Structures are given as structure tokens and as C-alpha cells.
């Protein structure tokens, strides 16, 4: 069963004309993981949402995993992974893989720079802010996070 939530100005019915106060049309964008066959959101834009001015792939650094047998309790000293020049590191390209398998990857980063625009089309992301603060800017709004917050970013969020 679908659950609808509306924020801001939306038309009375989905997939219909939605006019701006000046009479122009808002552009409709369907955002979701599986198109019409799964949960999705309708976003209304005053500009054209597909007008991408620049796009370039980012090659993820080597993130191969190795089996560790026998399985033993481990103490990960993640703070020792901090780059000495962490203030020049961003949260996207500065990540270091700690644990992972075919379903999940756990990385660690200490970052002091703003990250480039980024979209993970492969998986959802869960970020824990251990210290400091962060601002996540997406097409659906700006989210502020501070020490102790978890931020969940669904896949394909821009």
C-alpha cells in the first residue's frame, strides 16, 4: 500500500500540469530505485532537472577484500587510519575500506573539506558523524548533521 506525503506546492493529482505562480510549468521528476514498480518520489522543479552541465565517472580505489580465517574477535583502531593531512580530505574520495563483502562495505574517513557532487547509483549509504558536523545537500533539500547523528542517503540521490 502506498503512503503519500506532500511537502510544499504539489498538484491535486500526480502526473498532471502543475503551474508556477507566474503561470509557467513545474517540471516533474520521478525519483526511485525501480521506476514505476517500486517506491518512488515525485519531485517538482522550476528548472529542468535533467540539465546536467558536467558529469565524470569517479573510479573507486582498489577495495578488494581478503578472507580472514579463523574468525576471531578484532579490535579495529580506526583512528590510526586518519590521514595526517585530514583537513584536505573529503568524505567521498577519502574513504578507506575497513570491512566488506558482496552486500556491504564499511569505510572510515576523517574529512575536513567539502565533497564533490556525488551520486551513488549502486547502493544506499549510511554515514555516522563521529565528531564535528556535516551538511548534506540534495535535490530534496539540505540536511544538517552533527556529532552522534546517522545520515541515511538512499541510492541514486543527487
Automatic annotation (TrEMBL):
Keywords: Dioxygenase, Oxidoreductase. One of its GO terms (molecular function) is dioxygenase activity. Residues 1-23 are annotated as: Disordered. The keyword Oxidoreductase applies. CDD domains: cupin_RmlC-like. This is Homogentisate 1,2-dioxygenase. It comes from Glycomyces artemisiae. The lineage of its organism: Bacteria, Bacillati, Actinomycetota, Actinomycetes, Glycomycetales.
Amino acid at each position: 500500500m502506498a503512503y503519500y506525503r506532500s511537502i510544499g506546492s504539489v498538484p491535486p493529482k500526480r502526473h498532471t500540469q502543475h503551474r508556477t505562480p507566474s503561470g509557467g510549468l513545474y517540471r516533474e521528476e520521478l525519483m526511485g530505485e525501480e521506476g514505476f514498480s517500486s517506491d518512488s518520489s515525485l519531485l517538482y522543479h522550476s528548472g529542468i532537472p535533467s540539465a546536467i552541465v558536467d558529469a565524470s565517472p569517479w573510479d573507486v580505489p582498489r577495495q578488494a577484500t581478503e578472507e580472514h580465517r579463523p574468525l576471531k574477535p578484532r579490535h579495529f583502531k580506526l583512528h590510526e587510519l586518519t590521514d595526517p593531512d585530514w583537513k584536505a580530505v573529503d568524505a567521498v574520495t577519502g574513504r578507506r575500506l575497513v570491512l566488506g563483502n558482496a552486500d556491504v562495505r564499511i569505510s572510515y574517513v576523517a574529512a575536513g573539506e567539502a565533497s564533490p557532487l556525488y551520486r551513488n547509483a549502486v547502493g544506499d549509504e549510511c554515514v555516522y558523524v563521529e565528531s564535528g558536523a556535516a551538511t548534506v545537500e540534495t535535490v530534496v533539500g539540505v540536511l544538517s548533521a552533527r556529532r552522534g547523528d546517522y545520515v541515511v542517503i538512499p541510492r541514486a540521490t543527487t
